[in-house]
Amino acid sequence: MKAETAGSTLIELLLYMVIFVSLLGMLLGVFSSIINVQLESEATSSVTTDGKFILARISYDIGQAQTISIPAAPGAGGDTLQLESSGVPYAYAQSNGTLTLTAGSTTDILTGVDTTISNLTFLRLGNGGGKHSIRISFTLTSKTIKRTGPEVRSFQTTIAMR
Fold first, then answer.
1. Alpha carbon distance 102, 89 (integer Å)
2. CA-to-CA distance for 124 and 62, rounded, in angstroms?
3. Cα–Cα distance between 36 and 41 in angstroms, integer?
4. Closest CA to 151 of 48, 37, 54
5. What does DSSP say about strands 149-160 and 133-146: parallel, antiparallel, or unpaired?
6. CA distance 111 to 109
């Protein structure tokens, strides 16, 4: 009569290890894909959210402005916007990849921590006797790097004084 053993053979242990390593590899691949999708989503979201916020804030301030001092003349442009609303001076400027707004004596950073701004231009449109408009254009780049590179999006709009 043959005696039965209660333990596993070396071949069975190797087979279990191969199955375990295969499952672990598949789970690691799924986890990696989930992380990449999350990074892409965060990058796209931060650029879109910051772009909409910046445009809304500048649109509101230009709409409320009584005067725009910089850019000074129709056709003039630059990377700074200065205006006055209800006696308070407002100044928008780009500095080290951030957009700052100085309202009176308070300075705020309008770009989020996940984005940088570049190619900011304010172009004054209109004629000498009428209401002026400002064409704003800028590029936002996400600091979150996805597999295909950073998220980059350009924004442009034209806003008129009321």
1. 8
2. 12
3. 9
4. 48
5. antiparallel
6. 6
Tokens of 52: 């909409």
Residue 23's CB is within 10 A of a number of other CB atoms, namely 10
Amino acid, res. 53: F
Q: Which residues of 103-136 are buried (b: 16+ CB within 10 A; e: fewer)?
A: eeeeeeeebbebbbbeebbbbbbbeeeeebbbeb
Tell me what pLDDT residue 127 has: 61
Interval 13-38: pLDDT, tens: 889 999 999 999 999 999 988 887 78
The DSSP 8-state label assigned to residue 10 in this structure reads: H
Question: Is a pLDDT exceeding 60 seen at residue 5?
Answer: no
In angstroms, what CA-CA distances link 114 with 23, 44, 88, 96, 155? 35, 10, 30, 14, 17
Q: What are phi and psi of 13, to 5 degrees?
A: -60, -45
- Report whether 92 contacts 80 (CB < 8 A): yes
* 90 neighbors 105 (Cβ within 8 angstroms): no
- 14, amino acid identity: L
Specify the pLDDT at position 53. 93
Whole-model pTM above 0.85? no
